[in-house]
Design brief:
Shape: globular
Helix content: 40-55%
CATH class: Mainly Alpha
Order of helices and strands: EHHHHHE
Structural class: mainly alpha
Length: 71
């Protein structure tokens, strides 16, 4: 199972910089990078709520699930 975070796509669509986004959401730019690079192991619902409010989007707009390739 793989969850893909498409935060960079939404930031580009909204023409928003990582710094401005981080300030608006209330997280550090380093944590935005962790999310964008797919290295996050968890996300709080309050953070996800803030992200969706700032980007005016649904969670499905930034999170996508893909199946693992067959072994």
């Amino acid at each position: 199972m793989a969850l893909i975070v498409e935060l960079d796509v939404m930031l580009a669509r909204r023409k928003m910089s990582v710094g401005d986004f981080a300030d608006a959401v209330g997280i550090t730019p380093a944590n935005v990078a962790v999310l964008k690079n797919g290295r996050a192991r968890a996300i709080r619902f309050t953070t996800l709520d803030s992200i969706c409010r700032v980007l005016d989007c649904q969670p499905g707009d930034i999170l996508r699930w893909t199946a693992d390739p067959p072994a």
